[in-house]
Write a structure and sequence with these properties.
The chain is α/β, with parallel strands linked by helices. It contains 11 helices and 9 strands.
């Protein structure tokens, strides 16, 4: 049974983590399938927006802790080696999400715990059901965070709030996550699928190449110096200006109509 389902319709690629019996815990198989799917989507010109979600009642309840229980019985040196490989194996997914030249939406219901929080933070936008809940929780199993959460969380909520979330490992609501800056939208649980689809359709109808350039600009700004960031702005703007969607956007503005973007 596949641990990840991929469906593509109307320019939207939906990735569904599919281990509902384990709250979609991140298995090694799911990692491999997610990495492959993201690579395929990145190079599929028909895809203009990506949705990441979980099957059943939960988004993703972190790593496969039950699977880890066998590993910890080994010699400490072997445990260290194995978990270095496990964590490094996760990194290509994070790189692929950051590199993806199209917006990625995390659609969360139920639990987003541990690596589930990391995965949601790695997406560009997060929409959650009002009864969803979040917990970083790594400290609860005696380890520090992974999955890029140590990069994304302090930048989303500030260092003091990030320390609170990581060191205490408390569970908090979707509204608290929104108030802290972790996620973008909270909607009634019964409307999550509909609201996610509406958001994805809006982005899929937008200027896809522009979104890719905007992602690249914003993410590089986290590490760039002022001068190099302004140079990047100029280069990305000029790149957009040479494309069909810019001609359409300007023409639509002058003609007082809604633009019809093709993503090119």
């Amino acid at each position: 049974m596949a641990h990840l389902d991929l469906s593509i319709a109307d320019g939207i690629a939906t990735l569904t983590m599919n281990r509902p019996e384990a709250r979609n815990a991140l298995s090694m198989e799911m990692r491999a399938q997610l990495n492959e799917a993201l690579h395929d989507i990145e190079h599929d010109d028909e895809v203009r927006c990506v949705v990441l979600t979980g099957a059943g009642e939960h988004f993703m309840a972190g790593g496969d802790v039950k699977g880890m229980s066998e590993s910890i019985k080994k010699d400490p040196a072997e445990v260290r080696k194995e978990f270095l490989l496990r964590i490094h194996d996760l990194h290509p997914i994070m790189f692929a999400m950051r590199r993806m030249p199209k917006p990625i939406i995390a659609s969360c219901r139920g639990a987003a715990a541990g690596a589930g929080v990391s995965m949601a933070l790695a997406c560009d936008l997060v929409i959650a059901a009002d009864d969803a809940f979040f917990t970083l929780a790594y400290c609860k199993i005696g380890t520090s965070p992974d999955g890029s959460s140590s990069f994304h969380l302090p930048r989303a909520v500030g260092i003091k709030k990030a320390m609170e979330i990581a060191l205490l490992g408390d569970r908090f609501s979707a509204q608290e996550a929104k108030d802290s800056g972790m996620i973008n939208f909270v909607v009634p649980s019964v409307e999550l699928a509909t609201e996610t689809q509406a958001l994805a359709q809006r982005l899929a109808a937008g200027p896809t190449h522009v979104y890719g350039n905007t992602k690249a600009l914003f993410y590089r700004s986290l590490e760039s110096e002022f001068e190099s960031q302004l140079q990047a702005e100029a280069e990305y703007f000029a790149d957009c200006a040479s494309r069909a969607d810019f001609r359409e956007g300007v023409s639509a503005f002058v003609e007082k109509r809604s633009p019809q973007f093709t993503g090119k």
